[in-house]
Known about the structure:
Blueprint: H1 7-16, H2 20-32, H3 36-46, E1 50-51, H4 52-59, H5 63-75, E2 79-84, E3 87-92, H6 95-109
Antiparallel strand pairs: 1-3, 2-3
Amino acid sequence: MAEKVNSELISEIKKKMPNESFLYDLADFYRIFGDSTRIKILYALYEGEMCVLDIAKVLHMTQSAISHQLRILKDAKLVKFRRDGKTVYYSLDDDHIVKILELGTQHLEEE
């Protein structure tokens, strides 16, 4: 027996579906979370503001590698920075990033 197409549901979903440009931007946003080094940096910054040297020490990586990833995170508006003399301190950009990390963690911890 063939399934019946639910035309009303299809029409309603099509009306609510964001445009292609928005969906592309959303996919690009989530792509940033697809790198474990960037996730480690975000989790380190979840604990508080840090400079590149401190993040590098926590993650056992070079300052250059951390700076490269921070640039990507900054461009994606996931982290922000402030200067104190010659030192630059990084932190999570806002509470949305905290919530994304917390929701991802909760999802993975569910049994």
